Fold this protein.
Amino acid sequence: MAGSGMKSLAKDTAIYGLSSILGRLFNWFLVPLHMYVFINPVEFGKISYMYGYTALLFILLTYGLETGFFRFMNKKDENAEMVYSTSLISLAFTSGLFILFCFIFIKPIAGWMEYTDHPDHILMMAIIVALDAFMCIPYAYLRYQKRPIRFVSIRLAFIFLNIFFNVFFLAICPYIHTHAPSTIDWFYNPSYGIGYVFLANLISTFIVLLLFLSQFRKFKFGFDIHLLKRILIYSFPLLILGIAGVINQAVAQLIYPHIFGDNLDEAYKQLGIYSACLKLTVVISMFTQAFRYAYEPFIFAKNKENNSDTKAYSEATKYFIIFALVVFLAVVYFIELLRHIGRFSNYMVGLDILPPAMMGEIFFGIYFNLSIWYKLTDKTQYGAAFSILGCIITVAINIIFVPMVGYIASAWATFFCNLIIMTISYFFGQKYYPIKYDLKSFAFYLVLASILYFAGMYLTIANEYLKYIYRLVLLIIFVLIIIKKDLPLSQIPYLNKFINKNN
């Protein structure tokens, strides 16, 4: 039974993990579409600004209830149906109240957000985030029922619908309007611009809500106020953590229009360039996320098997650093090719953010690896403290330096924030759960990657083809050193079969 349980866990983890990564990848394809359609970074900045607020509002409107839902659904002395129903009704009430509040006070909200031109954009995003918050419990219920296929199908359905409606409104409709305007004049207005990005999201969200109706019809509804109070008491600390985490990730999206004074166009322009270029770090983000899905179940299983064997944790961290640095060099070496796409030129001026932003992501990945000490010792309060500290550092650097030097300060804020919490976590970890990390190898690869980065980026080669060939050679050298030192081909699955045959 135990083996069966682990196989089930591994299978579900693979499904959830793969779907999440694929979802982020497919969603990323909207970035070049938006950059191509909205040549002016100001428009992209407004989109980014709106989605920054929806990320924060989602945390506020779910108020940690998803994790609380799982905790109480799995308590033996709780009625699972009542937990589900109470959680669902609570979120339905608060989400509905939020939508009503936004409709009544839309003008002062738009004024406070410095977004008075199109308050309808705010209303659409308010409805979207409220529905998303409400649907987090139906999604969680599918996970509770161990129905990963259904869960993933609905998630991917939303992503494909959103992509379809974006392409329809931003690419197909303009083409039809140019050649046969009378056919779509009744619903399409070419001057509505970025509003169609929000409309596409709204339509997709409503369709996904309809997919959950069958789940609602089969359920007996009830409400227990005392149960809800206990769930909220449990969930409140998670809400604080969630807020700190979102602010840390989306601080630029949240504050730019408020720190450039009256120059809103400059604020949105800077935000548009920064957000578009930051999206290019998705390769590192996806790699880190994939690693997290595989690593977290691994460390808990390993800890259960042998609490004293920590070598595997050190090895896992080393290989994360190695492969993350390979991805880093590959991206920074060749991302400049995008400069040759004319319609992207207004955005590509911000490519300088990539090195510090990507290294910041790598530091966060290392921090995640190091964080096993407080997870295995149940000292998660330290994780909360590190998140809040990181949030304070990021916000402070952005507020102080962005008005002085522009969006590059946001990239360096990510770099220094994650470097600091990574370092602090390491020293605390050595105190409470000592692990002998291979610091010499970590330092060797970080220094080597730094040398190759500067050698590849700062040696002037006039011929474009020779420049990229030279960088490719440097990347191959890095990979060969890795193979020679830490990753012999004879130990790699599948490849070792061919090597053994030749020997």
User: Anything to note?
Assistant: Residues 1-6 have pLDDT under 50 and may be disordered. The chain is about 80% helix and 0% strand. The first helix runs from residue 2 to 28.
